[in-house]
Protein backbone atom coordinates (compact mmCIF):
# COMPACT_ATOMS: atom_id res chain seq x y z
CA UNK A 1 0.00 0.00 0.00
CA UNK A 2 1.29 3.43 -0.93
CA UNK A 3 1.43 5.84 1.97
CA UNK A 4 0.41 9.39 1.19
CA UNK A 5 3.14 11.94 1.53
CA UNK A 6 2.20 14.23 4.40
CA UNK A 7 3.51 17.26 2.50
CA UNK A 8 0.71 19.19 0.87
CA UNK A 9 0.67 21.86 -1.79
CA UNK A 10 1.74 25.39 -0.95
CA UNK A 11 -1.61 26.39 0.56
CA UNK A 12 -1.56 23.43 2.93
CA UNK A 13 -4.92 22.12 1.74
CA UNK A 14 -4.83 18.86 -0.21
CA UNK A 15 -1.90 16.61 -1.20
CA UNK A 16 -1.66 16.42 -5.00
CA UNK A 17 -1.64 12.62 -4.99
CA UNK A 18 -4.93 12.60 -3.06
CA UNK A 19 -6.72 15.13 -5.26
CA UNK A 20 -9.00 14.41 -8.18
CA UNK A 21 -7.77 17.58 -9.85
CA UNK A 22 -4.69 19.76 -9.61
CA UNK A 23 -4.92 23.49 -10.28
CA UNK A 24 -1.57 24.96 -11.33
CA UNK A 25 -1.31 28.72 -10.77
CA UNK A 26 1.54 30.73 -12.30
CA UNK A 27 2.07 33.76 -10.08
CA UNK A 28 4.89 35.01 -12.30
CA UNK A 29 2.43 35.14 -15.22
CA UNK A 30 -0.04 36.99 -13.00
CA UNK A 31 2.61 39.60 -12.19
CA UNK A 32 3.64 39.85 -15.84
CA UNK A 33 0.02 40.45 -16.85
CA UNK A 34 -0.25 43.27 -14.33
CA UNK A 35 2.88 44.87 -15.82
CA UNK A 36 1.45 44.54 -19.34
CA UNK A 37 -1.73 46.27 -18.24
CA UNK A 38 0.26 48.94 -16.42
CA UNK A 39 2.22 49.64 -19.59
CA UNK A 40 -1.03 50.07 -21.56
CA UNK A 41 -2.51 52.37 -18.92
CA UNK A 42 -0.14 55.23 -19.56
CA UNK A 43 0.16 57.62 -16.62
CA UNK A 44 -2.78 56.13 -14.71
CA UNK A 45 -2.18 54.00 -11.64
CA UNK A 46 -2.95 50.32 -12.30
CA UNK A 47 -4.91 48.65 -9.53
CA UNK A 48 -5.92 44.97 -9.35
CA UNK A 49 -9.35 43.45 -8.84
CA UNK A 50 -8.95 40.41 -6.57
CA UNK A 51 -12.58 39.62 -5.78
CA UNK A 52 -13.94 36.05 -5.84
CA UNK A 53 -10.78 34.75 -4.17
CA UNK A 54 -8.65 36.50 -6.78
CA UNK A 55 -10.71 34.88 -9.55
CA UNK A 56 -10.13 31.45 -8.05
CA UNK A 57 -6.35 31.76 -7.71
CA UNK A 58 -6.30 32.57 -3.99
CA UNK A 59 -6.22 36.01 -2.36
CA UNK A 60 -3.42 35.02 0.01
CA UNK A 61 -1.13 34.14 -2.91
CA UNK A 62 -2.26 36.55 -5.63
CA UNK A 63 -2.22 39.76 -3.60
CA UNK A 64 1.41 39.40 -2.41
CA UNK A 65 2.52 38.49 -5.96
CA UNK A 66 0.81 41.57 -7.35
CA UNK A 67 2.22 43.71 -4.54
CA UNK A 68 5.72 42.51 -5.34
CA UNK A 69 5.10 43.48 -8.98
CA UNK A 70 4.27 47.02 -7.87
CA UNK A 71 0.49 47.05 -7.39
CA UNK A 72 -0.59 49.30 -4.53
CA UNK A 73 -4.40 49.38 -4.84
CA UNK A 74 -6.82 46.45 -4.74
CA UNK A 75 -10.56 46.02 -5.24
CA UNK A 76 -12.72 43.24 -3.80
CA UNK A 77 -16.47 42.67 -3.74
CA UNK A 78 -17.03 41.83 -0.07
CA UNK A 79 -15.78 43.10 3.26
CA UNK A 80 -14.60 39.60 4.23
CA UNK A 81 -12.40 39.52 1.12
CA UNK A 82 -10.97 42.92 2.02
CA UNK A 83 -9.98 41.70 5.48
CA UNK A 84 -8.17 38.74 3.91
CA UNK A 85 -6.38 41.05 1.48
CA UNK A 86 -5.38 43.41 4.29
CA UNK A 87 -3.78 40.51 6.17
CA UNK A 88 -1.29 39.97 3.34
CA UNK A 89 -1.01 43.59 2.12
CA UNK A 90 -0.75 45.77 5.24
CA UNK A 91 0.22 48.93 3.35
CA UNK A 92 -2.15 48.64 0.37
CA UNK A 93 -5.23 50.69 -0.45
CA UNK A 94 -8.22 48.35 -0.52
CA UNK A 95 -11.71 49.19 -1.82
CA UNK A 96 -14.90 47.14 -1.35
CA UNK A 97 -17.06 47.35 -4.47
CA UNK A 98 -20.40 46.05 -3.23
CA UNK A 99 -21.18 49.03 -1.06
CA UNK A 100 -21.48 49.81 2.62
CA UNK A 101 -23.62 47.26 4.44
CA UNK A 102 -25.56 48.74 7.35
CA UNK A 103 -23.55 48.82 10.56
CA UNK A 104 -20.20 47.79 9.05
CA UNK A 105 -18.44 51.18 9.21
CA UNK A 106 -16.48 50.28 12.38
CA UNK A 107 -15.02 47.22 10.65
CA UNK A 108 -13.87 49.36 7.71
CA UNK A 109 -12.17 51.74 10.11
CA UNK A 110 -10.59 48.93 12.15
CA UNK A 111 -8.93 47.42 9.08
CA UNK A 112 -8.26 50.68 7.20
CA UNK A 113 -10.54 49.72 4.30
CA UNK A 114 -12.50 51.95 1.91
CA UNK A 115 -16.13 51.36 0.97
CA UNK A 116 -17.41 52.21 -2.50
CA UNK A 117 -20.47 54.32 -1.76
CA UNK A 118 -23.24 54.06 -4.34
CA UNK A 119 -26.27 55.76 -2.80
CA UNK A 120 -27.08 58.80 -0.72
CA UNK A 121 -28.07 56.44 2.11
CA UNK A 122 -24.60 54.91 2.11
CA UNK A 123 -22.96 58.33 1.94
CA UNK A 124 -25.03 59.56 4.87
CA UNK A 125 -24.19 56.50 6.98
CA UNK A 126 -20.47 56.85 6.25
CA UNK A 127 -20.56 60.58 6.97
CA UNK A 128 -22.38 59.95 10.24
CA UNK A 129 -19.71 57.49 11.31
CA UNK A 130 -16.91 59.88 10.32
CA UNK A 131 -18.49 62.71 12.31
CA UNK A 132 -18.92 60.46 15.34
CA UNK A 133 -15.25 59.51 15.12
CA UNK A 134 -14.09 63.04 14.32
CA UNK A 135 -12.15 61.54 11.42
CA UNK A 136 -12.30 62.06 7.67
CA UNK A 137 -12.13 58.42 6.63
CA UNK A 138 -11.63 57.74 2.92
CA UNK A 139 -14.14 56.20 0.55
CA UNK A 140 -14.98 56.00 -3.15
CA UNK A 141 -18.14 57.28 -4.82
CA UNK A 142 -19.72 55.12 -7.51
CA UNK A 143 -21.76 56.77 -10.26
CA UNK A 144 -23.83 54.52 -12.52
CA UNK A 145 -23.40 55.53 -16.16
CA UNK A 146 -25.40 52.72 -17.75
CA UNK A 147 -25.05 49.40 -15.93
CA UNK A 148 -28.15 49.97 -13.77
CA UNK A 149 -26.93 47.84 -10.88
CA UNK A 150 -25.17 49.92 -8.22
CA UNK A 151 -24.28 53.57 -7.95
CA UNK A 152 -25.72 57.05 -7.89
CA UNK A 153 -27.50 58.12 -11.04
CA UNK A 154 -25.68 60.64 -13.21
CA UNK A 155 -28.22 63.27 -12.13
CA UNK A 156 -27.50 62.49 -8.48
CA UNK A 157 -23.79 62.60 -9.18
CA UNK A 158 -24.10 66.09 -10.60
CA UNK A 159 -25.59 67.29 -7.30
CA UNK A 160 -22.71 66.00 -5.18
CA UNK A 161 -20.73 69.22 -5.43
CA UNK A 162 -23.53 71.08 -3.63
CA UNK A 163 -23.99 68.53 -0.85
CA UNK A 164 -22.28 69.28 2.42
CA UNK A 165 -21.50 65.63 3.20
CA UNK A 166 -18.50 65.53 0.86
CA UNK A 167 -16.61 67.77 3.24
CA UNK A 168 -16.93 65.28 6.10
CA UNK A 169 -15.06 62.31 4.63
CA UNK A 170 -12.07 61.71 2.41
CA UNK A 171 -13.24 61.60 -1.21
CA UNK A 172 -10.54 59.30 -2.49
CA UNK A 173 -12.03 58.16 -5.79
CA UNK A 174 -14.89 58.81 -8.22
CA UNK A 175 -15.66 55.73 -10.30
CA UNK A 176 -18.02 54.08 -12.75
CA UNK A 177 -18.01 50.81 -14.68
CA UNK A 178 -18.20 50.01 -18.40
CA UNK A 179 -21.12 47.95 -19.71
CA UNK A 180 -19.52 46.61 -22.90
CA UNK A 181 -15.86 47.64 -23.08
CA UNK A 182 -14.94 44.28 -24.63
CA UNK A 183 -17.00 45.40 -27.66
CA UNK A 184 -14.72 48.16 -28.86
CA UNK A 185 -17.25 49.63 -31.33
CA UNK A 186 -20.25 49.53 -29.00
CA UNK A 187 -21.74 53.06 -28.85
CA UNK A 188 -22.44 52.56 -25.14
CA UNK A 189 -18.74 53.11 -24.46
CA UNK A 190 -18.79 56.68 -25.78
CA UNK A 191 -22.10 57.39 -24.05
CA UNK A 192 -20.74 56.23 -20.71
CA UNK A 193 -17.52 58.21 -21.10
CA UNK A 194 -19.54 61.34 -21.83
CA UNK A 195 -21.81 60.80 -18.81
CA UNK A 196 -18.92 60.08 -16.48
CA UNK A 197 -16.95 63.05 -17.75
CA UNK A 198 -19.88 65.35 -16.88
CA UNK A 199 -19.83 64.20 -13.26
CA UNK A 200 -16.07 64.18 -13.11
CA UNK A 201 -15.89 67.74 -14.42
CA UNK A 202 -18.14 68.86 -11.57
CA UNK A 203 -15.76 67.28 -9.04
CA UNK A 204 -12.35 67.94 -10.60
CA UNK A 205 -10.39 67.50 -7.36
CA UNK A 206 -11.37 63.86 -6.85
CA UNK A 207 -9.26 61.21 -8.67
CA UNK A 208 -11.34 59.29 -11.20
CA UNK A 209 -11.49 55.67 -12.41
CA UNK A 210 -13.45 54.12 -15.28
CA UNK A 211 -11.51 51.52 -17.36
CA UNK A 212 -11.68 47.83 -16.49
CA UNK A 213 -9.57 45.16 -18.25
CA UNK A 214 -11.12 45.70 -21.67
CA UNK A 215 -11.45 49.45 -21.14
CA UNK A 216 -7.67 49.72 -20.96
CA UNK A 217 -7.51 48.59 -24.60
CA UNK A 218 -10.18 50.88 -26.05
CA UNK A 219 -8.84 53.07 -28.85
CA UNK A 220 -10.13 56.25 -27.20
CA UNK A 221 -9.71 55.07 -23.64
CA UNK A 222 -10.15 57.57 -20.82
CA UNK A 223 -7.37 56.54 -18.45
CA UNK A 224 -8.09 59.13 -15.74
CA UNK A 225 -6.07 58.57 -12.57
CA UNK A 226 -6.64 54.85 -11.99
CA UNK A 227 -7.58 51.74 -14.00
CA UNK A 228 -9.08 48.60 -12.47
CA UNK A 229 -8.24 45.40 -14.41
CA UNK A 230 -9.57 42.08 -13.20
CA UNK A 231 -10.16 39.26 -15.69
CA UNK A 232 -7.15 40.05 -17.86
CA UNK A 233 -4.82 39.68 -14.88
CA UNK A 234 -5.72 36.00 -14.71
CA UNK A 235 -5.21 35.30 -18.41
CA UNK A 236 -8.62 36.10 -19.84
CA UNK A 237 -8.67 37.88 -23.18
CA UNK A 238 -9.64 41.57 -22.76
CA UNK A 239 -9.78 41.99 -26.57
CA UNK A 240 -12.03 39.12 -27.78
CA UNK A 241 -11.87 40.20 -31.42
CA UNK A 242 -8.06 40.12 -31.39
CA UNK A 243 -5.26 37.91 -30.13
CA UNK A 244 -4.99 37.65 -26.37
CA UNK A 245 -2.16 39.89 -25.08
CA UNK A 246 -2.16 38.20 -21.68
CA UNK A 247 -0.26 35.17 -20.42
CA UNK A 248 -2.20 32.14 -19.11
CA UNK A 249 -2.20 31.94 -15.34
CA UNK A 250 -4.12 28.74 -14.53
CA UNK A 251 -3.87 25.17 -15.74
CA UNK A 252 -6.31 22.54 -14.52
CA UNK A 253 -5.55 18.83 -14.64
CA UNK A 254 -8.03 16.06 -13.88
CA UNK A 255 -6.98 12.58 -12.80
CA UNK A 256 -8.08 9.44 -14.67
CA UNK A 257 -9.57 6.98 -12.18
CA UNK A 258 -10.70 4.36 -14.67
CA UNK A 259 -10.44 3.36 -18.34
CA UNK A 260 -13.02 1.11 -19.93
CA UNK A 261 -14.34 0.00 -23.31
CA UNK A 262 -17.97 0.76 -24.12
CA UNK A 263 -19.63 -1.45 -26.69
CA UNK A 264 -21.44 -0.11 -29.74
CA UNK A 265 -25.00 1.10 -29.14
CA UNK A 266 -24.32 1.62 -25.44
CA UNK A 267 -24.69 4.98 -23.74
CA UNK A 268 -22.46 6.83 -21.27
CA UNK A 269 -23.50 8.82 -18.21
CA UNK A 270 -26.72 9.99 -16.63
CA UNK A 271 -29.86 9.85 -18.77
CA UNK A 272 -28.01 8.08 -21.60
CA UNK A 273 -27.47 11.29 -23.53
CA UNK A 274 -24.31 10.14 -25.38
CA UNK A 275 -24.37 7.07 -27.62
CA UNK A 276 -21.36 5.06 -28.79
CA UNK A 277 -21.96 4.17 -32.46
CA UNK A 278 -19.04 1.76 -32.32
CA UNK A 279 -16.81 0.38 -29.59
CA UNK A 280 -15.22 3.34 -27.76
CA UNK A 281 -12.66 3.72 -24.98
CA UNK A 282 -13.77 5.99 -22.13
CA UNK A 283 -11.62 7.63 -19.47
CA UNK A 284 -13.36 8.69 -16.28
CA UNK A 285 -11.89 11.74 -14.54
CA UNK A 286 -12.24 12.53 -10.84
CA UNK A 287 -13.58 16.04 -11.48
CA UNK A 288 -17.18 17.21 -11.76
CA UNK A 289 -19.54 20.09 -11.25
CA UNK A 290 -19.00 19.91 -7.47
CA UNK A 291 -15.45 21.02 -8.30
CA UNK A 292 -16.79 23.96 -10.27
CA UNK A 293 -16.45 22.44 -13.74
CA UNK A 294 -19.69 23.44 -15.52
CA UNK A 295 -22.32 20.78 -16.14
CA UNK A 296 -23.24 22.74 -19.24
CA UNK A 297 -20.07 21.36 -20.85
CA UNK A 298 -21.76 17.95 -21.09
CA UNK A 299 -21.58 16.13 -24.45
CA UNK A 300 -25.00 15.00 -25.62
CA UNK A 301 -25.17 13.23 -28.95
CA UNK A 302 -23.32 10.40 -30.67
CA UNK A 303 -19.69 9.43 -30.92
CA UNK A 304 -17.95 11.08 -33.83
CA UNK A 305 -20.33 14.03 -33.99
CA UNK A 306 -18.90 17.54 -33.82
CA UNK A 307 -20.40 18.76 -30.55
CA UNK A 308 -19.98 22.10 -28.82
CA UNK A 309 -19.06 20.49 -25.53
CA UNK A 310 -16.21 20.03 -23.12
CA UNK A 311 -12.80 18.79 -24.22
CA UNK A 312 -9.70 17.41 -22.52
CA UNK A 313 -6.13 17.22 -23.74
CA UNK A 314 -5.04 13.62 -23.26
CA UNK A 315 -1.40 12.86 -24.02
CA UNK A 316 -1.44 16.00 -26.14
CA UNK A 317 -4.53 15.01 -28.14
CA UNK A 318 -7.90 16.78 -28.06
CA UNK A 319 -10.58 14.42 -26.80
CA UNK A 320 -14.29 15.14 -26.49
CA UNK A 321 -16.36 14.62 -23.39
CA UNK A 322 -18.80 11.72 -23.57
CA UNK A 323 -22.10 12.18 -21.76
CA UNK A 324 -23.13 14.42 -18.90
CA UNK A 325 -20.70 16.04 -16.51
CA UNK A 326 -21.77 14.62 -13.16
CA UNK A 327 -21.18 15.83 -9.63
CA UNK A 328 -17.78 14.21 -9.15
CA UNK A 329 -16.86 12.69 -12.51
CA UNK A 330 -16.34 13.53 -16.19
CA UNK A 331 -16.20 10.90 -18.92
CA UNK A 332 -13.97 11.49 -21.95
CA UNK A 333 -13.74 9.61 -25.25
CA UNK A 334 -10.04 8.65 -25.57
CA UNK A 335 -10.44 6.03 -28.30
CA UNK A 336 -8.07 7.84 -30.65
CA UNK A 337 -5.26 8.04 -28.08
CA UNK A 338 -2.88 5.06 -28.41
CA UNK A 339 -3.47 2.71 -25.48
CA UNK A 340 0.15 2.85 -24.41
CA UNK A 341 -0.05 6.64 -23.98
CA UNK A 342 -2.89 6.79 -21.44
CA UNK A 343 -3.41 4.84 -18.24
CA UNK A 344 -5.16 4.93 -14.90
CA UNK A 345 -3.67 7.59 -12.63
CA UNK A 346 -2.60 9.91 -15.46
CA UNK A 347 -3.68 13.53 -15.38
CA UNK A 348 -5.24 15.22 -18.39
CA UNK A 349 -5.62 18.92 -19.13
CA UNK A 350 -9.03 20.53 -18.67
CA UNK A 351 -7.79 24.14 -18.76
CA UNK A 352 -4.52 24.93 -20.47
CA UNK A 353 -2.89 25.04 -23.88
CA UNK A 354 -5.54 25.40 -26.58
CA UNK A 355 -8.17 25.02 -23.87
CA UNK A 356 -7.91 28.60 -22.64
CA UNK A 357 -10.35 29.84 -20.00
CA UNK A 358 -12.21 31.65 -22.79
CA UNK A 359 -12.42 28.48 -24.90
CA UNK A 360 -13.58 26.37 -21.96
CA UNK A 361 -16.25 28.96 -21.26
CA UNK A 362 -17.35 29.01 -24.90
CA UNK A 363 -17.70 25.23 -24.95
CA UNK A 364 -19.87 25.39 -21.85
CA UNK A 365 -22.03 28.21 -23.21
CA UNK A 366 -20.72 30.66 -20.65
CA UNK A 367 -17.75 33.01 -20.15
CA UNK A 368 -14.23 32.51 -18.88
CA UNK A 369 -15.00 34.66 -15.84
CA UNK A 370 -17.41 31.98 -14.59
CA UNK A 371 -14.90 29.21 -15.27
CA UNK A 372 -12.21 30.95 -13.19
CA UNK A 373 -14.37 32.03 -10.29
CA UNK A 374 -15.93 28.56 -9.92
CA UNK A 375 -12.61 26.78 -9.49
CA UNK A 376 -13.37 24.51 -6.58
CA UNK A 377 -11.92 23.94 -3.14
CA UNK A 378 -11.33 20.21 -3.76
CA UNK A 379 -8.44 20.82 -6.15
CA UNK A 380 -4.89 20.66 -4.93
CA UNK A 381 -3.36 24.02 -5.73
CA UNK A 382 0.23 24.12 -6.96
CA UNK A 383 1.80 27.58 -7.16
CA UNK A 384 4.71 28.63 -9.29
CA UNK A 385 6.73 31.82 -8.80
CA UNK A 386 5.61 34.80 -6.80
CA UNK A 387 8.77 35.06 -4.76
CA UNK A 388 10.26 38.46 -4.02
Automatic annotation (TrEMBL):
Pfam families in the cross-refs: Ala_racemase_C, Ala_racemase_N
Reaction(s) catalysed (UniProt annotation): L-alanine = D-alanine
Enzyme kind, highest EC tier: isomerase
Cofactor(s) needed for function: pyridoxal 5'-phosphate
Record NCBIfam families: alr
Active site: 51, 270
Binding site for substrate: 149, 327
Sites of N6-(pyridoxal phosphate)lysine modification: 51
Lineage: Bacteria, Pseudomonadati, Pseudomonadota, Alphaproteobacteria, Hyphomicrobiales
Alphabetized CDD domains for the sequence: PLPDE_III_AR (cd00430)
Pathway: Amino-acid biosynthesis; D-alanine biosynthesis; D-alanine from L-alanine: step 1/1
Stated family: Belongs to the alanine racemase family.
Key word Protease present: no
Molecular-function GO terms, alphabetical: alanine racemase activity
Annotated Alanine racemase C-terminal domain residues: 249-384
PANTHER family per the UniProt record, alphabetical: ALANINE RACEMASE, ALANINE RACEMASE, CATABOLIC-RELATED
Biological role stated in the UniProt entry: Catalyzes the interconversion of L-alanine and D-alanine. May also act on other amino acids.
Organism: Microvirga arabica
Assigned EC number: 5.1.1.1
The organism's place on the tree of life at top rank: Bacteria
Keyword terms, alphabetized: Isomerase, Pyridoxal phosphate
Protein's recorded name: Alanine racemase
Amino acid sequence: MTKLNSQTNSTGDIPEQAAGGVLHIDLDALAANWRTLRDHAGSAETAAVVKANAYGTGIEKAVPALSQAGCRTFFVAHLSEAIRARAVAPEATIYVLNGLFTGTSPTYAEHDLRPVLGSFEEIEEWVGFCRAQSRKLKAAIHVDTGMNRLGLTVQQGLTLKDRGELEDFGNALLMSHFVSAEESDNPLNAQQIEAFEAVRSSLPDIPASLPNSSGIFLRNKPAYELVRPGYALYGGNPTPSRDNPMRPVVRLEGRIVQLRWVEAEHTVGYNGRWLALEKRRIATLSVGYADGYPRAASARGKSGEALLAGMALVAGQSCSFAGNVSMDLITVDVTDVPEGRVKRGDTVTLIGGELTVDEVGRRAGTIGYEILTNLGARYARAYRGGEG
